[in-house]
């Protein structure tokens, strides 16, 4: 409930005195308390008079303080004017001093310019002199250089003559050596011609026995290859003890186990020997022969069996004819696929399906190895980059090594090593290629649920008996080869001896021919070193002419040095005179600047004095303004106290009149007093304009007054006008404060009208009441009078329905609404006379289940939203007045999408 102004209550009470007391005087309940009421009225009058005296005293004291403060302000204004005049004089003095400094500076600048010119002339003359001295020195050096060059050229000519003579002597000696070498070659060639028929006869005798040796050699190579293929599958890989302990549960140190295993694998010796007879070579590693595919699978089987036996595993991985067929088909499907990704899995699925296997029963583990790339080319076709390779060969030993690395790789992986040790399954090994890599893939097949067509016959390695037989075959082939070579030993010895002699003669002839070539090259080199002395002689002649020319130029530079020295002496004399002029003007400039600094200090002191006076004037002005506000407040308090005094006096008079006459006379007196009280109330309203303005600006306060006269006034046309003024003032409050003065005038005018309306209404009511009382007294006497009085009292005291105050809140709208990551940010312009803003948002256009955020800023970020979601957003303003909150309408919904 809004607070009701005290002045309104006072004014309203005056009206109540005349009407309510006039009615209630005839009532028996009120008649008994009239005596006590008179005593209380006297105390109220005395108390109100005391408040008036205190308020008048406060007004007088404040007025006195204001007069003193205005006097101080006047003194401060005069002092400020004086300080301002002093400041302007100081500024004029500074300007004059600056002018003198500028003049002295100009003179000094002119003298400095003359000095600079004189210094420039000295520098130029000195530079010319230094240049002339340097030029002369350089020219003397040129003369010395020309003399030295002539001496060098003459010496070079002499050296050429001596060198040419020595070279000709060496050429003659080398020609003599060449003739000697040619004679030795002729003798050796004769011996070689005699040896050639004997060597041809020995070659024919040896060729007759060579087919037997070649056949024996081929038999030995075949036997060695068969033996190598049989023994190359017997792989034994000793596991480190730390790894065995981990697998068997004796240790939990996996890091040490895998480290030791990797070291053992790095130092392992393979049964395949690089370059032996069984180390077959393939252009395409995926095109293994059936025998090598079988060898590879048996090698891996023996390797896994060796591992399982060391860790005590009874599980067995078996190679069957069906698993070999799966490996073959896997290779075919892999090589025919054109996919880049998931190629292995597609090949497993196709190969398994072709053989009636469940693809999920086949698991593939592979490892990549590099192929030998001879060349590589890149081409672009239809925007696609294509890479082509030219490959070298791949040996069987390289494929076996990749298979070994695949098994050890599985053993060092804690998630896959059990697939080698703990599984009973069929398996096979396939080889494929893709780009510059070849892949060795271990295919494991779970034996449960296999079709009947799948071959389960185990592929066994070569037996020990077969290996022993193959070793015997190698020994026999080696014996046959040795016997064939032994049978051809005499012919071979004769042939080797004659061929050795022939090679020795060829070597001697080649050595002599080499010496001849070296000698011939030496002669060519010597001849190329012979120089033509004509060019050296020409250089000597040129150097002699150059010396004569440099000597003539040296005479000219010496004369130039003498002339530059004379000009330098003249310029130095002029420079000394210019320095004296600069020193004189510099002294004058220093004095002017010193005077300027002194005057500036005085200006600074004047400025400080002015600033101090300005501050004192400002403080005095603020003090006067403050005292004026205090005086205004004190006057309002005095007017308020006087209004309370009039109210107390009116009440006292009314009480006295009620106790004197009859009830009819008392009613008339009440009416008269009521008129008088209404007049007093009007005076109080005129005296307290500022309070009445507040009461007129608040319609709710008027409705809260308990005076029946006041309620009657609110019901008539004048009261409607007052309510209109209240609404006008409310609109003024919602706009800007510049209209306060106009509203105050409007309030004053309204107050006057309201006072007049109250007087008229009170008179009419009093006459009406009196008339009714007189009429009813004649007809119904006392009972009728009581009924009329009670009805009039109820009519005046009854409350009207309180009207709601209309408050208009300025609306706002979005200037920016942008989405961000799981959030959005809204911006809007600031609205006048609002307390804050609210933003509500929802994923539904109907704003169902909308959430609301409040803020006093003009920007709000709402986070914690769903990503990539469309939101509907609205904005409104709110204003808080007297513990109530008023809102503007929601804006039209705008959409924003989060990221």
Question: SSE layout and pairings?
Answer:
Elements: H1 6-24, H2 28-31, H3 34-231, H4 241-247, H5 254-266, E1 281-282, H6 290-311, E2 317-318, H7 321-336, H8 343-354, E3 362-370, E4 373-381, E5 384-391, E6 394-395, H9 396-411, H10 418-421, E7 425-434, E8 437-445, H11 464-487, H12 489-529, H13 533-658, H14 663-687, H15 689-696, H16 699-703, H17 708-715, H18 717-734, H19 740-779, H20 781-797, E9 814-820, E10 823-828, E11 836-842, E12 851-855, E13 859-863, E14 870-881, E15 884-887, E16 894-897
Parallel strand pairs: 2-7
Antiparallel strand pairs: 1-6, 3-8, 4-5, 7-8, 9-10, 10-13, 11-12, 11-14, 14-15, 14-16
Helix pairs in contact: 1-13, 1-14, 3-11, 3-12, 3-13, 4-5, 6-9, 7-8, 13-14, 14-19, 15-19, 17-19, 17-20, 18-19, 19-20
Q: Would you kindly provide a written description of the structure presented here, covering whatever features stand out?
A:
This protein is α+β, with helices and mostly antiparallel strands and 899 residues long. It contains 20 helices and 16 strands. It has helices at 6-24, 28-31, 34-231, 241-247, 254-266, 290-311, 321-336, 343-354, 396-411, 418-421, 464-487, 489-529, 533-658, 663-687, 689-696, 699-703, 708-715, 717-734, 740-779, 781-797, and strands at 281-282, 317-318, 362-370, 373-381, 384-391, 394-395, 425-434, 437-445, 814-820, 823-828, 836-842, 851-855, 859-863, 870-881, 884-887, 894-897. Strands 11, 12, 14, 15 and 16 form a five-stranded antiparallel β-sheet that branches. A four-stranded mixed β-sheet has the order 2-7-8-3, with helices on both faces. A three-stranded antiparallel β-sheet has the order 9-10-13, with no helix packed on it. Helix 15 (689-696) packs across helix 19 (740-779). The model is unreliable at 1-32, 662-790 and 792-804 (pLDDT under 50).
């Amino acid at each position: 409930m809004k607070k009701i102004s005290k002045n309104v209550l006072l004014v309203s009470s005056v009206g109540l005195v005349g009407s309510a007391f006039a009615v209630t005087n005839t009532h028996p309940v009120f008649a008994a308390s009239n005596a006590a009421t008179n005593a209380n009225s006297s105390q109220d009058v005395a108390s109100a008079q005391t408040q008036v005296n205190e308020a008048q005293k406060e007004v007088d004291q404040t007025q006195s303080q204001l007069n003193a403060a205005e006097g101080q302000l006047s003194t401060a204004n005069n002092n400020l004017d004086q300080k301002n005049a002093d400041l302007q004089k100081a500024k004029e003095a500074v300007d004059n001093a600056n002018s003198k400094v500028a003049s002295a500076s100009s003179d000094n600048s002119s003298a400095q310019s003359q000095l600079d010119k004189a210094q420039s002339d000295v520098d130029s003359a000195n530079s010319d002199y230094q240049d002339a001295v340097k030029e002369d020195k350089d020219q003397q050096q040129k003369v010395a250089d020309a003399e030295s060059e002539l001496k060098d050229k003459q010496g070079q000519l002499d050296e050429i003559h001596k060198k040419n003579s020595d070279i000709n002597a060496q050429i003659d000696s080398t020609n003599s050596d060449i003739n000697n070498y040619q004679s030795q070659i002729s003798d050796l060639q004769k011996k070689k011609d005699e040896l050639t028929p004997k060597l041809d006869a020995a070659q024919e005798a040896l060729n007759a026995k060579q087919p037997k040796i070649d056949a024996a050699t081929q038999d030995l190579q075949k036997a060695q290859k068969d033996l190598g293929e049989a023994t190359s599958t017997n792989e034994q890989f000793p596991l480190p003890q730390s790894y065995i302990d981990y697998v068997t549960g004796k240790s939990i140190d996996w890091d040490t186990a895998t480290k030791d295993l990797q070291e053992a694998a790095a130092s392992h010796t393979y049964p395949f020997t690089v370059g032996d007879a069984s180390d077959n070579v393939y252009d395409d590693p995926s095109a293994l022969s059936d025998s090598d595919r079988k060898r590879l699978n048996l090698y891996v089987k023996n390797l896994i069996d060796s591992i399982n036996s060391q860790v005590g595993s009874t599980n067995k991985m078996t190679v069957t004819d069906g698993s070999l067929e799966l490996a073959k088909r896997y290779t075919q499907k892999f090589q025919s696929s054109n996919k880049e990704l998931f190629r292995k899995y597609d090949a497993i699925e196709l190969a398994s399906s072709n053989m009636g296997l469940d693809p999920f029963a086949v698991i593939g583990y592979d490892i990549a190895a590099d192929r030998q790339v001879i060349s590589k080319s890149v081409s672009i076709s239809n925007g696609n980059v294509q890479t082509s390779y030219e490959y070298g060969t791949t040996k069987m030993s390289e494929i076996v090594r990749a298979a070994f690395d695949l098994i050890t790789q599985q053993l060092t992986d804690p998630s896959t090593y059990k697939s080698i040790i703990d599984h009973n399954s069929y398996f096979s090994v396939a080889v494929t290629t893709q780009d510059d890599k070849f892949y060795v893939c271990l295919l494991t097949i779970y034996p449960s649920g296999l079709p009947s067509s799948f071959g389960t016959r185990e592929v066994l390695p070569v037996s020990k008996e077969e290996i022993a037989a193959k070793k015997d075959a190698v020994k026999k082939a080696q014996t046959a080869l040795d016997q064939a070579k032994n049978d051809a030993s005499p012919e071979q010895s004769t042939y080797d001896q004659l061929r050795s002699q022939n090679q020795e003669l060829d070597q001697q002839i080649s050595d002599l021919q080499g010496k001849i070539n070296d000698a011939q090259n030496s002669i060519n080199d010597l001849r190329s070193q012979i120089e033509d002395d004509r060019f050296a002689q020409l250089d000597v002649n040129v150097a002699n002419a150059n010396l004569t020319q440099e000597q003539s130029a040296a005479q000219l530079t010496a004369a130039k040095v003498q002339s530059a020295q004379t000009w330098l002496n003249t310029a130095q004399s002029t420079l000394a005179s210019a320095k004296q002029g600069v020193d004189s003007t510099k002294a004058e400039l220093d004095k002017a600047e010193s005077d300027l600094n002194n005057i500036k200090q005085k200006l600074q002191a004047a400025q400080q004095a002015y600033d101090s006076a300005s501050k004192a004037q400002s403080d005095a002005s603020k003090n006067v303004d403050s005292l004026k506000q205090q005086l205004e407040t004190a006057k309002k308090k005095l007017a308020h106290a006087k209004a309370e005094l009039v109210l107390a006096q009116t009440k006292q008079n009314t009480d006295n009149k009620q106790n004197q006459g009859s009830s009819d006379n008392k009613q008339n007196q009440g009416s008269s007093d009521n008129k008088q009280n209404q007049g007093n109330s009007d005076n109080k309203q005129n005296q307290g304009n500022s309070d009445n303005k507040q009461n007129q600006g608040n319609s709710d306060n008027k409705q809260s007054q308990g005076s029946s006269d006041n309620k009657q006034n609110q019901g008539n046309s004048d009261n409607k006008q007052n309510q209109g003024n209240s609404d006008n003032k409310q609109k003024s409050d919602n706009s800007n404060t510049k209209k306060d003065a106009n509203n105050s005038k409007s309030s004053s005018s309204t107050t006057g009208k309201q006072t007049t309306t109250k007087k008229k209404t009170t008179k009419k009511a009093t006459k009406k009441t009196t008339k009714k009382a007189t009429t009813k007294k004649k007809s119904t006497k006392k009972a009728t009078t009581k009924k009329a009085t009670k009805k009039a009292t109820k009519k005046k005291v009854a409350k009207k329905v309180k009207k709601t105050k209309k408050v208009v809140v300025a609306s706002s709208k979005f200037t920016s609404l942008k989405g961000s990551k799981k959030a959005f940010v809204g911006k809007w312009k600031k609205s006048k006379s609002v307390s804050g803003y609210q933003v509500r948002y929802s994923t539904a256009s109907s704003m169902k289940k909308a959430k609301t955020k409040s803020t006093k800023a003009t920007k709000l970020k709402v986070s914690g939203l769903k990503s990539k979601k469309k939101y509907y957003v609205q904005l409104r303003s709110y204003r808080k007045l007297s513990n109530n909150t008023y809102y503007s309408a929601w804006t039209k919904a705008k959409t924003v999408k989060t990221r």
